[in-house]
Amino acid sequence: MIDLHEGWIETRLADIIATANTGLDAIKRAPIVIEDTGIRCFRIQDASQSKEYIRWGFTNVNQQNYDKFKLLTGDILIARTGNSIGVNFLVRHDTKAVFNNGLIRLRVNEFVRYDFLYKIISSHVFDRYIQSIAYGTSTQPNMQINSLLNFNLLLPPLPEQKSIANILSSFDEKIELLREQNKTLETLAQTIFNELLIKESHEEWNEVSLEDITERITDGAHKSPKTVETGFPMASVKDMYQWGINIDSCRKISEKDFAELIKADCQPLKDDILIAKDGSYLKHVFIAEENMDVVILSSIAILRTNGKYAPLLLKTYLTLESTKKGLENIVSGAVIPRIVLKDFRKFKLRLPPKIIQDKVLACIQPLHGKCLDNNRQIQTLTKTRDTLLPKLMSGEVRVNS
User: Fold this and answer.
1) N or C: which end of the chain has fewer CB within 10 A?
2) Contact predicate 113/264, CB 8 Å
3) pLDDT for res 132
4) Is the pLDDT score of 137 beyond 60?
C-alpha cells in the first residue's frame, strides 16, 4: 500500500481523461491532398519527425468530421501502431487541423493539467507500459485504447501538478535550445559541404553507389523479440534522435535474444552511420561515437564505410535536401514509408577526389565536434530529468506549489 501525501490520489488514466479516441480514416475521411484546403491532417510521421504545423499535409474533411476531430490546445496525441508506436505530441495552440486513425487523442478532465499529464506520457515509465501492452508477438505492434487507459498513476493536487510540470519543462527548454544549436551547426555544415563541392571542378569526380564505398549496408532484426521487464535494450526509430539513440527509452529484451541479435550483426559499432528508414525515414542520421550496447530493429539501417569515403562526409551527404529528394525514389509504402534496402545499396552519389574530400572534412569537423559536445550536455540533462521525473511523480521529491 502506497503511503500517499495529503491531497494525492491513486488513479487510472481512464479516470482523468474526458475523451479518448482514434482519428479519421486516412483514405476516405481525411485523405492528404496537394491543394491548400486550409485544413491540415496530423499523422504518425508528423509526430515521429517532429514536423512543424506548416509542414503537415492538407486534407479534405466535411464539417462534421472537422468539428469532432479538430485539434485544440492541450490535446495529447499518441501513435498507436507501427515501429513509431508510443511517439507522442502535445498540441500547444488551437489549430485548423484534424488527426488520422494511426493516433489516439487524449483530452483531460478538470482534475488534471494537460502539461502535467504530458510529462507522464513522455516518460520512460509510460513508454515501457506501452511496450508491454503493444508487443509480445512478432506481428505489427498495436495498442488498444482500453489497454492504454488502464495505466495507473499518482495524481497530486492541481497546484503541485503545475509546479512539477514547470520544473520538468525547464529541463526540456534547455535541451531544446541545445538541439536547435545542433540544427544550426548541421545546416552550416551542409552549406559548407555544398558550396565547396559546387566550386570545385567535377572533371575528376566518379559516380559510385553506396555499396561501392561501404563494407556493409544492413538493417536490424525483422522479427521483434518479446519485451521483458528487465533486460537488454533494443532500439526502433522512435528511440533515435538527431545525434544518437536514447538507450533508456528502448524496450528491453532477454539476454538470449540480445546475444542472438549481436551475432546477427544488429549492433551498431564505432563510426557506423545509422539512418532511420522506416516511418521517420531520413529524418535522423548519425554516426556512432563508440560501440553501442544496443541492438536495433529493421526500421534502422547501418552503413559501415570501407575507407573510400570518411563517415562524417557520408553522414553529411545523407542529410542534404538534394539527397533526401533522390532517396524518395526508393521509398515504398503509403501508410508507413520505408526505404527499400536493396535499392538503397544501389543509390548513386558523386564522389570527389580525396584532396577535395579532405578540404571539406577539415571545415566541417569542428562543427561536428561542437555538436557532439552539445549532445553530451543533452544526454546529461535528459538523464537528470528522467531520474527526477519518477521521484516528482511519486512524491518522493516534493515541490512548493
Assistant:
1) N
2) no
3) 85
4) no
- Can you say whether residue 286 is alpha, beta or left, with left for phi > 0 and alpha for psi between -120 and 50 degrees? beta
Among the listed residues 124, 34, 84, the one whose alpha carbon sits nearest the alpha carbon of residue 390: 124
Range 272-275 contact pairs with CB under 8 angstroms and sequence separation of 24 or more: 272/302, 272/303, 272/304, 272/311, 273/302, 273/303, 273/304, 273/305, 273/311, 273/314, 273/315, 273/318, 274/240, 274/245, 274/300, 274/301, 274/302, 274/303, 275/300, 275/301, 275/303, 275/318, 275/339
If you count them, how many residues does the chain have? 401
- The CATH code of the domain at 9-155 is 3.90.220.20
- Per domain, the residue ranges of the chain are 9-155, 206-351
The span from the CA of 141 to the CA of 238, in Å, is 13
> Cell numbers 495505466 correspond to what residue?
151
Residue 311, C-alpha cell as written in the block: 563517415
- β pairing state of 232-235 and 295-296: parallel
Closest by alpha carbon to 264, among 228, 223, 236? 223
- Residue 1 scores a pLDDT above 50: no
CA dihedral 21, 23, 29, 31 (to 10 degrees): 180
| CA–CA–CA angle 261, 262, 263 (5° rounding) | 90
Residue-wise pLDDT for 81-114, tens only, equals 877 889 999 999 999 999 999 999 999 999 999 9
What count of Cα atoms within 13 Å lies in the side-chain half-sphere of residue 187?
Answer: 6
Rounded CA gap, 158 and 9, in Å? 12
As a CATH number, domain 206-351 is 3.90.220.20
- CA-nearest of 179, 90, 171 to 386 is 171
49 is written with which cell numbers?
A: 519527425
* Residues 6+ positions from 338 with CB-CB distance below 8 Å: 277, 278, 279, 281, 331, 332
pLDDT digits (tens, 9 = 90+) for 308-352: 889 999 999 898 888 888 888 888 876 667 888 899 999 998 877
